[in-house]
Amino acid sequence: MHDDLIARAKAWLAEDPDADTRAELAALIEANATKELEARFAGTLQFGTAGLRGELGAGPLRMNRSVVIRAAAGLAAYLKKQGVPHGDGTAGLVVIGYDARHKSADFARDTAAVMTGAGLRAAVLPRPLPTPVLAFAIRHLGAVAGVEVTASHNPPRDNGYKVYLGDGSQIVPPADAEIAAEIDAITTLTAVPRPDSGWETLGDDVLDAYLARTDAVLAADSPRTARTVYTAMHGVGKDTLLAAFARAGFPEPVLVAEQAEPDPDFPTVAFPNPEEPGAMDLAFAKARETDPDLVIANDPDADRCAVAVRDGADWRMLRGDEVGALLAAHLVTRGARGTFAESIVSSSLLGSIAGKAGLPHEETLTGFKWIARVEGLRYGYEEALGYCVDPEGVRDKDGVTAALLITELASQLKEEGRTLPDLLDDLAVEHGLHATDQLSVRVEDLSLIADAMRRLRERPPTELAGLTVTRTEDLTQGTDTLPPTDGLRYTLDGARVIVRPSGTEPKLKCYLEVVVPVPTRADLAPAHEKATTLLSAIKRDLSTALGI
Fold first, then answer.
1. Do 411 and 222 meet the contact criterion of CB atoms below 8 Å apart?
2. Per residue in 432-458, pLDDT tens?
């Protein structure tokens, strides 16, 4: 067993094109670090609907150039089997974007080389740019596929590889399994042609086209007065967002200087995710200093948008569901037509807003790969700070256009002497207070998640927080409107709970919602108190049922 492990490690080392990971792996072999080698060679990083995502390092269970070259070769083989022209003047185009994480530029270049070697055309964005720019470029350039090298808001040690097809949407089954099979068929890197040139490096005209498209998000005559504090969270969003805000005529955002420039080590945050505790502390400090109308944050690849508002003497983050409802209400007021869509773990308030406006509403599985495919989509969101406000331009979540739209809404309310929380109160009175929360458990051992899901299936709760569970659905069976997924949904009297393993992180996630009637504005405070009490009790009872 030990000899076989060392042999596999040496075979991998012999093909590794990266000096950094070669040195890392050689040192592990030299030190006879069996446990660490086993952790890297116990399998392969699996390609799925999120593409690839994992910790950087040497070996098949880490993100590295060898793994990326195999992934790119598998994608190229899949595209050719789908009938994409290759090897002549009409070869299909694959456009490639990347963020500012460690190795992202290398992974992008390797992908371009592999596509070129496979007889496809490849074009790489000119520098690290937001993921929405890549999603836009696919449709704008008529590409057959796109690749974004990013790990979004994961820790600094991670990187990832996200694949889009020609409609500008992320892959869904069965494409993921078919691409994975092509990757598995690649036995050696020596069989993958990788020329040193032959692909195109795009200029700023694609970015300019994206920025021109952002203008269409706003109403032509809307007020543009709201003042913002902005943090890029050490990512790639700053320049693109500032350019979009300048074009729109908004006041220039005040930057959180410590987090404004790309830094793959994310030195000021434990996790570069606006939802994580402490991540917004510097932004709130800048807000207390400058007194803006709202605070806006992007995650590192700028496809998500976080919003914070003044709450008494201080500031608070709005939940993704609150921003989702605010944007929906704003679009309805502006006369938007088309389908409003959300993931099943997002608030049911969107359905109420759409229903009252006479608009179609759809629920999808979690992830924009599903939301973006809703027929006739006009607006889509998911609670994890993802919003699609211009589906014809970007078939994915877009933290830049979402920031523009929420700032337009704040400007309009400001002209009326009102705020975003005032509009949330209006929605609560009109539709009931839809309060959401999340119970999220991060684990080192993934088997704990499987054990917890099995425990719930064997002994499903009959009540939570004193509310009777009126319906239990095991989503592995699928529903009339949803394909199968690993999840459980509980409908309670005035509440809803969904439990599912995260698709991108070692987490078990539980999404909670309670709906409390609010007859008049005078009933808002007691309704909020009741909702808070219920959510806390549901969390407590659910934790007990999960056993973790």
1. yes
2. 999 999 998 888 888 889 889 999 999
Q: Quick check: 75 and 143 in contact, CB under 8 A?
A: no
Strands 361-364, 339-343: parallel, antiparallel or unpaired by DSSP? parallel
Are residues 225 and 415 in contact, defined by beta-carbon separation less than 8 angstroms? yes
- Left (φ > 0), alpha (ψ -120 to 50) or beta: where does 308 sit? beta
Cβ count within 10 A of residue 544 = 10
Cα separation of 411 and 39, whole Å?
52
| pTM of structure | 0.96
Helices and strands in the chain, H and E counts: 17, 21
User: CA gyration radius for the chain?
Assistant: 24
Cα(287)–Cα(206) distance, rounded to whole angstroms?
A: 33
What are the tens digits of pLDDT across the range 66-119? 999 999 999 999 999 999 999 888 899 999 999 999 999 999 999 999 999 999
Catalytic residue annotation: 152
And the tokens for 287? 């807000």
Specify the long-range contacts of residues 214-221, CB closer than 8 Å, at least 24 apart.
Answer: 214/244, 214/247, 214/248, 214/390, 214/393, 214/400, 214/401, 214/404, 215/247, 215/248, 216/390, 216/393, 217/389, 217/390, 217/401, 217/404, 217/405, 217/408, 218/248, 218/404, 218/405, 218/408, 219/334, 219/408
CA–CA dist 325, 515 (Å, integer): 14
**The pairing of beta strand 254-255 with beta strand 228-231:** parallel
Contact 209, 220 (CB under 8 A): no
Tell me phi and psi for residue 426, to 5 degrees: -60, -45
Q: Tally the C-alpha atoms within 13 A of residue 467's C-alpha that lie toward its C-beta.
A: 27
**158-165 and 145-149 beta bridge pairing:** antiparallel
> DSSP characters for 189-247?
GGGS---SS--EEP-THHHHHHHHHHGGGS-TT------EEEE-TTSS-HHHHHHHHHH
> What is the Cα–Cα distance from 298 to 107, expressed in whole angstroms?
23
* Spatial separation of the C-alpha atoms in residues 107 and 66, rounded to whole Å: 9
Q: 306-350 pLDDT, tens per residue?
A: 999 999 889 999 999 999 999 999 999 999 999 999 999 999 999
* Per-residue model confidence as pLDDT tens digits over 209-228: 999 999 899 999 999 999 99
SS (H, E, C) 400-439: HHHHHHHHHHHHHHHHCCCCHHHHHHHHHHHHCEEEEEEE
Whole-angstrom distance, CA of residue 202 vs CA of residue 311:
44
